[in-house]
Each structure stands twice: as C-alpha cells, then as structure tokens.
C-alpha cells in the first residue's frame, strides 16, 4: 500500500510508549497496533486529530505517500 503510517516514528521522537498513546486516545493497544502497522482500512479525522494533538505533530508527520 502506498500510504505509510509513521506513528512509531513519532512515538520514538516524543519518547512515548504505545500504551500511553492508546490511553490518551481512549482506544485499545490492539486497535492502535492496527493503525500503526497500516492494516486499518481508514482513519477517522477525529482519530488523526487526537493522535496529532497527543504527539504534538502534523498529519503529514503521521501519514506519508510512496509510489508502489
């Protein structure tokens, strides 16, 4: 898939664990894992906004397009 999800990169930059982000977002670690691995079929803008707020970043820091 040409859309790459860089949540792990931002978590590392912010020195935050997945568990902490999942708690802030109010989702399970399993659901966060699905988002992080790019296995999710889509993102709600509400979820993307919450991730950006929690990680103090922009949507472009989380999502990246690469041609296949």
Automatic annotation (TrEMBL):
Protein name stated in the entry: Helix-turn-helix transcriptional regulator
Top-rank lineage group of the source organism: Bacteria
CDD domains in the cross-refs: HTH_XRE (cd00093)
SUPFAM superfamilies: lambda repressor-like DNA-binding domains
PANTHER family linked: DNA-BINDING PROTEIN, DNA-BINDING PROTEIN-RELATED
Database matches in Gene3D superfamilies: lambda repressor-like DNA-binding domains (1.10.260.40)
Source lineage: Bacteria, Pseudomonadati, Bacteroidota, Flavobacteriia, Flavobacteriales
HTH cro/C1-type domain segment(s): 13-62
Stored Pfam families: HTH_26 (PF13443)
